[in-house]
Design brief:
By secondary structure, the protein is an alpha/beta fold. Helices cover 33% and strands 16% of the residues.
């Protein structure tokens, strides 16, 4: 007998069909009374992406819940502690976006250091003579400091090395790597470009503040493709205005979408993309399909890929 699944957001077509072949899907998209829909059926699984919230209140009306899954990596929208308390598996797709985020990070680095975005603007404005101003530089020979040497950090290191950069890094935990590690302050002091790849936790909120920005070189560029709240945006705005650092490029901000008065969005020294680094067709399909495969396996009495069970240690008997 097929089990009931509460789907909080649309997913890739291939993954959606796989799910519907194996379960009875209850759609609870924007505007739906999610709790009422959950109460109407005996829900065994809840599937979301980045917006659908899975909290205690929703779990309370799903007494036979077996699994909560996110087609993605971050779990900010899921109460993992509550799920673990109930022995409910929390599934995500670790590493599924590491390649595309690494590519996007390099894109931000290249566009910033070469001033490519400004060159495009000037050509569109008819200013071909912009080329004579030698406004851009190159990655080759520059020092890249990576904060967080996890899946994405390692991918970025490999790509940067291929561009001829000298890579150094800091990580809270010991990491085996061909690249040299330093304390965070030294990474900030040594680097021409600093890129952030740590998760947003209580201890990493505002990890980069006034003190840290003051350690960076005046020509340095800060890149953030992790989470917006890792950087103190007030301190960053001040650092840009005072020429303490040369620029900031990011795919994330502390508040998304940003309010109209966010000074970073239109600042002449920033380059901001709309949290789109992982939103490629290839990655979207892969993360959705792998997540649904794991959910279907659990609902059919099988096992999920252990690496995808985020709270596997918390739900052990």
């Amino acid at each position: 007998m097929k089990k009931y699944v509460l789907l909080l957001e649309t997913i890739d077509d291939e993954a959606d069909q796989l799910l519907r072949n194996s379960a009875i899907v209850i759609e609870a998209f924007d505007g739906s009374d999610i709790v009422k829909l959950a109460q109407s059926s005996d829900i065994s699984a809840i599937i979301t992406r980045g917006k659908g919230i899975v909290n205690k209140h929703l779990m309370d009306v799903c007494p036979h819940l077996e699994v909560v899954a996110r087609c993605g990596v971050g779990l900010d929208n899921i109460d993992v502690a509550e799920a673990s308390r109930r022995k409910v598996k929390v599934i995500n797709a670790p590493g599924s976006n590491s390649g595309t985020i690494a590519e996007h990070t390099l894109t931000l680095m290249l566009m910033s250091i070469r001033n490519a975005w400004k060159s495009v603007e000037r050509v569109k404005a008819g200013d071909w003579a912009w080329r004579s101003r030698y406004q851009g530089d190159e990655l080759r020979g520059k020092t890249l400091g990576i904060l967080g040497m996890g899946n994405i950090g390692k991918r970025v290191a490999g790509l940067a090395s291929a561009f001829g950069m000298h890579v150094i890094f800091w990580d809270k935990f010991p990491v085996e790597s061909e690249f040299k590690s330093f304390e965070m302050n030294e990474v900030l002091q040594r680097s021409d470009i600093v890129t952030i790849h740590v998760p947003l936790l209580s201890e990493t909120a505002n990890l980069i503040g006034r003190k840290e920005l003051s350690l960076m070189q005046p020509h340095a560029i800060l890149i953030n493709a992790a989470r917006g709240a890792i950087v103190d945006e007030d301190a960053l705005t001040e650092a840009l205005n005072m020429d303490y650092i040369a620029g900031f490029a990011a795919d994330v901000l502390a508040t998304e979408p940003p309010p109209g008065d966010n000074p970073l969005v239109n600042h002449p020294k920033t380059l901001i993309t709309p949290h789109s680094g992982s939103l490629t067709k290839t990655t979207y399909r892969e993360m959705c399909v792998s997540t649904i495969e794991n959910v279907v396996s659990i609902l059919n009495g099988g096992k999920a890929d252990p690496a995808s069970v985020f709270n596997r240690e918390s739900i052990l008997p």
